[in-house]
């Protein structure tokens, strides 16, 4: 887990793991860049992925290595990215209530670092690594797990399991919107908030979840979880 400046890992009875693209941020950064700069290659690689010929990470390597986008061009694009209307309130609420909050992104560390600076908002995260040299992109997986069906560079199930090994008994919440990168984390969590293709996938699998539109919808449920946890602790005293 990458901690922001001044932050430190802490024990927590409640932990919130949140997808970034299309969830914490309104836009999907990677998909938007691919549509703009690799539109012809995208359907070819996507068909290969759907046929099971390549993994999600192999798709990412092929598509992003084809981009010719300089760091300056990328940073200019990142300044157009909007955060979910409830993003800032969610991070603030977690900080005030000693709830661990961590973004799990199958995107890239450079993007998350720049967006934290742009929006003056700080959070822990796990993501893939990006380096850009003369417009050529080189990416490395952040926490791949070959045993998981997701096939992504950041296996969100693996991230959640790593947290659980250090914080047994904590309640884990996962928030996401994408079928490919969020399903394994959604299944691994104790409570999942889902929308878009993740909601469709969980419905098809018969996995229970809470629907949401913006991160404002998540906060009332988190408050109830905290209140219930506090009541249990006081009753045990």
Given as residue ranges, the uncertain stretches (5+ residues, pLDDT < 50) are: 4-10
Q: Biggest sheet, in brief?
A: 7 strands, mixed
Order of helices and strands: EHHHHHEHEEHEHEHEH
Q: What is the highest CATH level, the class of the domain at 14-28 and 82-131 and 140-236?
A: Alpha Beta
Task: Name the CATH homologous superfamily of the domain at 14-28 and 82-131 and 140-236.
Answer: HAD superfamily/HAD-like
Identify the overall geometry.
Answer: globular
Specify the oligomeric state.
Answer: single chain
Written overview of the protein:
This protein is α/β, with parallel strands linked by helices and 237 residues long. The chain has helices spanning 29-37, 41-50, 56-64, 71-78, 87-96, 109-119, 156-166, 179-188, 196-205, 219-236; strands at 14-18, 100-108, 124-133, 136-140, 171-176, 191-194, 210-211. Strands 4-3-2-1-5-6-7 form a seven-stranded mixed beta sheet, with helices on both faces. It starts with 13 loop residues before the first strand and ends with a helix.
């Amino acid at each position: 887990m990458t901690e922001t400046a001044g932050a430190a890992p802490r024990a927590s009875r409640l932990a919130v793991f949140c997808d970034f693209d299309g969830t914490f941020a309104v836009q999907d950064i990677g998909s938007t860049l691919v549509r703009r700069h690799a539109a012809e290659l995208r359907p070819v690689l996507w068909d290969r992925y759907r046929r099971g010929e390549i993994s999600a990470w192999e798709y990412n390597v092929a598509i992003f290595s084809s981009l010719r986008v300089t760091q300056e061009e990328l940073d200019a694009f990142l300044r157009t990215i909007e955060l979910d209307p409830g993003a800032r309130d969610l991070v603030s609420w977690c900080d005030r209530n000693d709830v661990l909050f961590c973004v799990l992104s199958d995107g890239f560390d450079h993007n998350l670092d720049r967006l934290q600076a742009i929006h003056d908002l700080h959070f822990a995260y796990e993501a893939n690594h990006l380096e850009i040299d003369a417009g050529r992109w080189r990416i490395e997986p952040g926490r791949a797990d070959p045993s998981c069906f997701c096939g992504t560079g950041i296996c969100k199930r693996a991230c959640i399991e790593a947290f659980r090994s250090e914080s047994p008994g904590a309640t884990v919440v996962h928030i996401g919107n994408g079928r490919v990168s969020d399903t394994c984390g959604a299944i691994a969590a104790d409570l999942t908030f889902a929308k878009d293709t993740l909601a469709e996938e969980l419905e098809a699998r018969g996995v229970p979840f809470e629907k949401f539109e913006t991160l404002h919808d998540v906060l009332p449920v988190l408050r109830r979880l905290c209140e219930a946890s506090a009541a249990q602790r006081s009753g045990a005293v």
